[in-house]
Specification:
326 residues; 10 helices
């Protein structure tokens, strides 16, 4: 009886500059192994995804096909290519118990579908899980030590900074950095809301990766980030960074006070409009009211008598009209 095998290859990341040859080399070696052992490969499944957690779609598809009887076994480079977590490892052992998987073939690991073989397979899966858990802990320890030295640990830097690939140091972005500084300076004045800041920053050129304005939550997160005056917070630890501060501690504190003040109910945050009550609308005769938009005072008709074509007028232009009239 002809035995059919699925060939499964996996690399731990989908980043092109890392492990680029991993998939190709695995396929080439496993094809030679199958030819040497007279194993028939029915289909090849390849995946660029970590096996640390369950949820690999191609791996799940392969096991579903095996449950339907489309293949008798799996060929892989090593058991850790199949599973590095207890859920996927347990699923493979269960399929061996129910004889949906009859054979597992590895060039670097011996396996036979017997109680002893399944026991050894469980040990191999356990070793793979121990390796990835221990690696994660070592990485976390290394990142904590980098923070203690004042270095940026890993990942994307805060907006306004970039990681120089030459010396691996965090530096102020020549374009985005001044925009972030301007965010703090503008908001510290206390005459604009986060919505106003959102509109103004978009006009300056501060945009998200998709080209849309920053969300107010992102603005608030940025304005609360101590990294900009030199203090790094990482995993409940706070350390002085060696990067160049973008703003002063004094400016940061003024922004925090403004944020608390602006977050109070409106009855405690009344805006003063000095030119109210001096004129009425020339088109319909209604009163003139005012509003704050984009950091500026605008005066306009109340439109209490219906639609009015009179446009909004900035306070500077309105003051000039009053001055000319006087």
């Amino acid at each position: 009886m002809i035995q059919n095998y699925f060939l499964y290859v996996r690399k731990s990341t989908d980043t092109e500059e890392r492990q680029v040859l991993s998939i190709e080399s695995q396929i080439a070696e496993l094809k030679l192994f199958a030819e040497r052992e007279n194993l028939k490969i029915k289909n090849i499944f390849q995946e660029a995804m970590t096996a640390k957690v369950p949820g690999r779609p191609i791996f799940s598809t392969m096991l579903s096909k095996i449950e339907k009887g489309e293949a008798d076994g799996i060929i892989a480079w090593h058991p850790d290519r199949l599973a590095r977590n207890s859920v996927d490892g347990g699923r493979i052992i269960y399929l061996l118990d129910t004889e949906h998987i009859k054979f597992l073939k590895f060039p670097t690991f011996w396996f036979e579908n017997t109680p002893q073989g399944k026991f050894m397979m469980q040990i191999a899966f356990g070793q793979s899980k121990y390796y990835i858990d221990n690696l994660s802990e070592n990485v976390r320890r290394g990142l904590r030590q980098k923070v203690r030295r004042g270095e940026w640990p890993a990942g994307r830097t805060p907006p306004g900074y970039f990681l120089d690939k030459n010396d691996r140091k965090v530096k102020i972005h020549p374009i985005q950095g001044p925009f972030i500084r301007r965010l703090f300076e503008t908001y510290a004045l206390g005459n604009c809301t986060l919505q106003d800041l959102k509109e103004m920053s978009f006009e300056w050129g501060l945009k998200s990766l998709s080209g849309t304005p920053w969300a107010k939550s992102q603005l608030q997160k940025t304005l609360k980030n101590t990294f900009y005056f030199g203090l790094m917070n990482y995993k409940d630890e706070c350390h002085q960074g060696i990067h160049e501060p973008l703003i002063s501690k004094e400016l940061f504190d003024r922004v925090q006070k403004t944020m608390v003040h602006m977050g109070r109910p409106n009855k405690y945050r009344k805006r003063y409009f000095p030119l109210l009550g001096l004129a009425t609308c020339p088109k319909c005769g209604c009163s003139i009211t005012a509003t704050l938009k984009k950091g500026h005072n605008y005066y306009h008709c109340t439109k209490r008598r219906g639609p009015c074509p009179e446009r909004y007028l900035r306070e500077e232009h309105y003051a000039l009209q009053i001055s000319l009239a006087i």
